[in-house]
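Entry 14. Ran structure prediction on the chain below.
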Amino acid sequence: MSKRKNAFQISKINRRKKSQEPGFLRKVKHWIHQYDQHFRHAALVILVILASLFVYYFQQTGGYLFKASVLEAPTPFTGTVSPVDKVPDWTNWGGNNNTTIYSSVSANLLVALPSYDLQQMQFPDTNLQWGNSSHDKIRNAKITYPVVYLGNYQLDHQEYSGSHPAVDIKMPIGTPIKSIANGRVVKVSMQNSGFGHHVVIEHRNVPDISDPNKKVTIYSAYNHMDEIHVSEGQTVGKGQLIGTSGDTGTATTPHLHFQIDRDTAPWHPYWPFTSAESQTAGLSFFEAVNAGLGLSNAKQYTINPMLYVSKYLNYSGSNVDSGADDFADDNNGVSGNDSQQDGKKNTEKNPPDTNKKPVEETTVEVVQPGNESSKVDTSLFAFSITGESVSMINNGVTITATDKLGQIARMSDNDEVPVNVYGVGRLSKKSFRKADFKNNSIQFIVNSSETGTAKVEVGKTVHEVGFIEQVQPVSSLRVESDGNHQKGQVEVIKLVALDQDGSPTPVVNFSGSINVTTKQGHAEFTPNQLSANDFRNGVAEIRMISQTEDPIVIRAQNGAIVGISDTIYREDRQQFADVNKSHANYEAIKYLQEQGIISGYSDGTFKPGNTVNRAEALKMLMLAFDLQAGPGGALPFSDTDDSAWYAGTLATALEKAIVKGYDDGTFRPANTVNKAEYLKMIFLTGGISPGENLAANPYNDVPKDAWYAPYAYLTNKMNLLSVSNDRLSAGSGMTRGDVAETIYRLKYIQDHNLVTYQN
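Output, structure tokens:
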């Protein structure tokens, strides 16, 4: 499945020792004396040549040796982890691996990465029986590892039968990829051929695969990736997310080409033969691998990556860090304002948290739904929608909606999936029954006689189609960024094609290439040249890595088509030490921090996994939705303090019927807020009133007649909260990351006039 990339060996420059012979020195001195002027010119030429050689070496190595001397040393070896946590259960999943995105695969259809067990994988296919659980595991492993280490492309799972120097792991696009051990990134490449987007990580002073007492250096390589979240020179930890899987380069299907090279390999990722060698042998690329061309080279310069990972999963060497978590301040770091009583200093600690976990102030408990309702709410189904995003008016666009989660199996013959359109446009069909689905898909047409955007909603998934009157040529470019950069960190830059009126044009039709450079500052761009084919609906993305902390201005140009960015300034620091740009809640946390709604702990962390109490949740929500806290007053609860920092917030929330107390006369401000309580708070604070009567359970574990079911329905419909197995777990506590994400998503929906939030 993997293809080779062209590699270049860096020529070594041999230095000669100066001769120490006195006669020679006398001759040199005499020569200099006689030809002083000529010698100076020659010396200058030599210096230029040496400088050129140094620049060439620096470019070929990425300057890594220089960078490594000033960068922080990686953490010592603490064992390994698998590069991938979970893959689809291939024996039960009926999706298309070539088109499916990992995040769309239902959690109950994902399994832990199977063991790399040759004996199992070599079990004859003809002896496998369907319905046998042990045979299903064998079949799953066979599918997961189609090409084994030093195997071939005949899928026979025989090691040393070919010269493939890695293990191919089948997975959908977007599967999270992790570093197998502590190390440093020495190569990031975004090439369009060969290994495609790939990362190489150096691991120094690690145990050898055959002798744990022998320390060596190895290089792990992760190839054919989609997104890359690290940069060259960056130190990474064991299990750290480095990107997502893809099918870039010359891969024929989405997978990870996982390889480990020895330190002696002449380049990384290593490949055991060249194209010239395969041509000389009269073999195509696949034939060369199957014939074992270069097998001795592969044995010499690579090791079995899955065996190495497996061997040191439970490593207990002397380098393992003990580590201890720091404890946060008592105020939980919710906001800079939270420790004050709406302008007054708070000198009192929060009341103690009781161990009771009522779902709402009325002490109604969460119960498991029974069989009282077999009806399903198809408006909450999620579909994968494909179709053109731009069309001329009066030209119908065919929309295909595919159920990749097996949801239609829950429908009765009379249930219908609704289809709606908002904005402009009309539909050829507005609902579909179970029998209308062919191969889990339905098709319909959206058309419009006027310009504008049609927002097509199938279930709870929305697809937008822009209808235009005529195609405008590209006149200029808009270069978009978030306005900040960090030295050595990857920043995503967008190029938007504009017509002569300065409006985005979805159809890009220029010839030649757009060159991306810096007008001010120093940065590297990947790619640094773009063709019209790199634009999707008029937008192209590139990645920028700044080389200094100076301000940067980007120029994108193709002849008269020019785009200049606003100045991109150095970001003073990462907002929080434990929330980097690859964190799932990064955008939400950054937004709320910039709005002054949340702040971090004194140690510079945010601790997104920490839970939030009821008083803190109210404070954040009222700040987020601009509800001014009143002066306070006498609170009607036995466990609250009228002078506490939350008094004004709570009094206002009571007045607006956002919250109420428990039947025993308490409010329990320090109790962890559970999801059911919180969802009621956020919708009422955001000015959204839920409906009353639900047709079906909004989640598998939320009965339709539960008091919080209407809020759960809105949460599902708007996609405010990520859940697993369609279970809300309403009694579980809200984390700081959850709160940030839900506020961010709801405000985004309201600000952009959306039906549902889509990443």
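Confidence is low (pLDDT under 50) at residues 1-35, 54-72, 318-373. Will compare against last week's run tomorrow.
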